[in-house]
């Protein structure tokens, strides 16, 4: 419920927010087996991707901490809802940057917009599992059929 009362505000100073979350807000981090940070964003951070990736890799290596990113691509020029359009990078460049950052943090990346889901690590994983199950099923059916023919 508290999420519904939040308002969009802030800056693109990703490193400042990440440092606060990792170094200040994780006071009881030793009491938890694993933790995750979820970044909900509409645009590219204002720092270099390789700098953020290096910090994230180092910060997450000592903890069982993962950074997950949900990137929302808004229609170009949208500002009526207070969402700042990403003006420094294309949606594809923004997604690529966050995918690199997420990989450094062993997290998951999700990219969606008004048209639906563009990319999601979870959906990719589910599709992969379904393909494995289909292949296994086909192998089992082939094995059963070959055993029937021998009998």
From TrEMBL:
Protein origin, superkingdom: Eukaryota
Protein known as: VWA3A protein
Protein's organism: Nesospiza acunhae
């Amino acid at each position: 419920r508290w999420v519904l009362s939040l308002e969009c505000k802030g800056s693109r100073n990703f490193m400042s927010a990440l440092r606060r979350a990792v170094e200040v807000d994780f006071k009881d981090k030793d009491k938890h087996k694993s933790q995750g940070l979820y970044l909900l964003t509409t645009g590219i951070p204002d720092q270099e991707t390789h700098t953020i990736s290096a910090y994230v890799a180092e910060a997450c290596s000592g903890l069982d901490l993962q950074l997950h990113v949900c990137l929302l691509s808004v229609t170009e020029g949208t500002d009526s809802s207070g969402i700042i359009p990403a003006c420094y990078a294309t949606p594809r460049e923004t997604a690529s940057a966050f995918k690199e950052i997420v990989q450094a943090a062993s997290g998951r990346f999700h990219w969606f917009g008004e048209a639906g889901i563009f990319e999601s690590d979870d959906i990719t994983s589910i599709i992969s599992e379904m393909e494995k199950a289909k292949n296994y099923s086909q192998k089992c059916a082939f094995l059963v059929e070959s055993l029937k023919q021998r009998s």
